[in-house]
Amino acid sequence: MDGKDASPRGSTAQRIEAELLEDIAAGQIEAGARLDETKLAARFGVSRTPVREALSRLAAQGVLESGDRRGMRVAQYTREELAQMFEAMHEIEALCARLAAQRLTLLARSEIEAAQAECTRTARDGDLPGYLRANEAFHLSLYRATENPYIFDIASDFRRRTGPFRAKKFAATGDLIASAQSHEELLAKIFSADSNIAAEGMREHMTASFMRVLAAN
């Protein structure tokens, strides 16, 4: 962030922003949900000032939107808007898979495999909140493997915005297990080092995901 964030208030606002982003991306805070400044201040043990700053940051990113007089809420999208976002996300994720296959380092592979191991564990346990967070970590590790911070930021932004909608596609433990298994199939293609196969594998993965999202929303 910029230099103004070096203040204690800036650091607190950043921490609140990061935690709320994680909750929204993992679907723990649903689309349309109102964020109450007073309740959030109590949750984080702070005054309303850094909470208000964190919410303003999220609004600037398009993650939150102004509601009525009751304050900010998680952004909502029509099915058409959601389809357009997934169309863009589809290609960005495919690019990430392509570049990851080309540029994969031992460190990046280790991070991806650790995230996938957590996906597998939480899926088998039927731990939906745990799986949602592990799934985010899995995709973020793929974005980092591109070694391109600009692509990382763009891809991450789409995941934040669509998080509440993607979370609804997991209705049962079987859905979690199927998702984790699809990760294994995807990773086999990425680890093959064939960038075309990796990109096509991600397109297949994202198409299946989008169809489940539309069915659930």
TrEMBL record:
Record has Transcription regulation as a keyword: yes
InterPro entries assigned to the protein according to its UniProt record, in alphabetical order: GntR_C, TF_FadR/GntR_C, Tscrpt_reg_HTH_GntR, WH-like_DNA-bd_sf, WH_DNA-bd_sf
A Pfam family it matches: GntR
UniProt-listed SMART domains: FCD, HTH_GNTR
Record PROSITE patterns: HTH_GNTR (PS50949)
Domain HTH gntR-type: 10-77
An example Gene Ontology molecular-function term: DNA-binding transcription factor activity
Transmembrane segments: none
Matching Gene3D superfamilies: GntR ligand-binding domain-like, Winged helix-like DNA-binding domain superfamily/Winged helix DNA-binding domain
Keywords: DNA-binding, Transcription, Transcription regulation
Protein name: GntR family transcriptional regulator
